[in-house]
Structure prediction request, 354 residues.
Amino acid sequence: MFCPISAVPNMAPRELSALEKFLGLKKPHKYSTQGVKKVPVLQINSGPPLVGLGTIACHLVKEAKRPDLLGDSAESRAVVQQWIEHRVTKLDRCRKDDVKTFLKDLDHYLQDMVYLAGNHFTLADILIYYGIHPFMVDMAIHEKEQFINVTRWFDHVQHYPGVQHHLPLVTVLRNRIYTSRHH
Amino acid sequence: MALNLTINTTNPPLGALLAAEHVKDSVKVSVEEGKDTRLHVSDVIQFSDCNSISRYLARVAPALGLYGSNTMEQTEVDHWLEFSAQRLCGNTGLAVALAELDKALSLRTFLVGHSLTLADISVWASLKGHVEWQSQGKSFSHVSRWFFFLNSQVPFSAVGNKYTKKNVPLT
Prediction:
């Protein structure tokens, strides 16, 4: 059987800890994982356990009283949820060769956007950044230029105060080298 | 130290106004409407050029990083200040300048470093006041994205709405 190359699902507890730090939450939570896919689980004091990266991430954002990170209008809230769902259902299930398709769509989408939800930084940017990091790390310069809008957005997010955390910095040149390349 | 900025309302110095807006929590700057654009620092020191005014304001509030965070970035900021004053103000060569700007912005969210600097402020201000920008903007997608991103940020939208209307009769 083909094993998904993406190591992302195993990374979820680490990502959530990083998110806690970004949000400035003082008390770190303990996460367990569930099933072969290692879905993260958070047991909170009151009520049933929270299951899944997106669900827990949204919970943390609310705990930190940062509702702006979930979007500031009905429309942007929907867009944020859409990208979180994309992350969990599409990106995390991608094999290495499918990732190109995901990145191509993302690149097209980011052509006229600074952030995924338009002009404001949201949780969607953080989670997609975590999700594509393993692929960006391995990319050659000409590949990064193929997805120029993704690369620009990625570089901006990794320099956003407090986001990068445990992840290694991906080198991004600030000017294009392969200017004649079409994509 | 209280600074006083007088602005010419028929040709408002958008860049200087934005710089003043950004530093207002660190430095006291009062803005008045008058005949000529002038930053009054003391009785012997006054600046009348828009770029000189914003440079001075950025320098008295170094913690904001509006002048970049190292010598390299400072030089880049200088480059863009010059670029906005020379290349984006004339009536000719706008398309060439925009193409250059578009290339520079393809891998950047902000012109210099990873946050807002005078470079963004000054180039944005020149484009905002430029008559031809609106008709040519569509062909430069990176410039457009950057321009409208800044447009949506609070000091930019406030200053833009307050002062550009008066610019229209001139054109």
Q: What stands out?
A: The CA atoms of residues 20 and 48 of chain A lie 20 Å apart. The radius of gyration of chain A is 16 Å.
